[in-house]
């Protein structure tokens, strides 16, 4: 299947989110027409940043209300689109039947569009490395697109912390790829698996997202140790958005393929916090100590757990060689995130002299 035409029309689900907002902006910058799908197009607290984009004034960008829990919500929106960037999250990752139902009705809207030829499904590196048994990372330390979590582990259950999210992402990828194959080649689905997204927010409500929220807490004077002492495995949100666009328009990729989006740069959470003062000494930032909430039996394994994470071999060869991606350094991502939290988010920093 050929890529979407340059200047074509792309629907973006989850367009008010951190990744979705940047996908919209990147598509507009590349000359595409965008249909931004949000839960409530009239909620200015979440959509004002979209309507402030130049493409909205000209009509290249349009906003559409679509609650993905409602079957058929994308039917009219997808008609006439060449591509779909399916970025939005479901509301519950502990119920795989629910995840399947949502994927099913979105797929039906793609099928009914008679125009969409490529869908990029936003997944996560959780669909690559989120293991119910952490020692599986020792047995299989190479982390590339061919790696999947051990689905046969008896501990891999949707109700376990983190596992439902990973399972839901794998399920979505497979459902879209299988449906595209069954379409007889009328459309294809490819998957983007981003790492820990860091970078500038576009709207104040985005400060509540996962990794930028951790940086927000640091600025305010407190933050928590990361789960199982895992280091941040990062990608700049602008690179994630660019990779989505390249996956929509690249003619070399085919149905069912997935591409990891991460720089392969890692940093412990304490070092992320220390980076703020190093990168922006003018802030006079009062760097807090990390809070370790884990019980003693987990703290006793800290050295072992850190060693397991350090032993991973993170790869992004496919994104670099086929999509031509280059990745923004983490220092730039942290600096730009901090400055956007202060200016766009209105975060009040805890300063040494305050």
Whole-number tally of structural domains: 1
Gross CATH architecture: 3-Layer(aba) Sandwich
For the report, how would you describe the main beta sheet?
7 strands, parallel
Distance between the termini: 59 Å
Strand content: 5-15%
Strand order of the largest sheet: 3-2-1-4-5-7-10
According to CATH, what is the class? Alpha Beta
Overall form: globular
Q: Based on DSSP secondary structure assignment, what is the total number of beta strands?
A: 12
CATH homology group: NAD(P)-binding Rossmann-like Domain
Give the proportion of residues in helices.
Answer: 40-55%
Structure, briefly:
The protein has 354 residues and is of the alpha/beta class. It has helices at residues 18-29, 44-51, 54-58, 75-78, 96-113, 126-129, 136-139, 163-182, 210-220, 237-249, 269-279, 296-299, 302-310, 317-322, 330-343, and strands at residues 9-13, 33-38, 61-65, 83-86, 118-122, 142-143, 188-194, 196-198, 232-236, 258-261, 266-267, 313-314.
Protein architecture, described:
By secondary structure, the protein is an alpha/beta fold. The chain has a single domain (9-343), classed as Rossmann fold (3-Layer(aba) Sandwich). The chain contains 15 helices and twelve strands. It has helices at 18-29, 44-51, 54-58, 75-78, 96-113, 126-129, 136-139, 163-182, 210-220, 237-249, 269-279, 296-299, 302-310, 317-322, 330-343; strands spanning 9-13, 33-38, 61-65, 83-86, 118-122, 142-143, 188-194, 196-198, 232-236, 258-261, 266-267, 313-314. Strands 3-2-1-4-5-7-10 form a seven-stranded parallel sheet, sandwiched between helices. A three-stranded mixed sheet has the order 8-9-11. Helix 1 (18-29) packs across helix 10. It is globular and about 55 Å long.
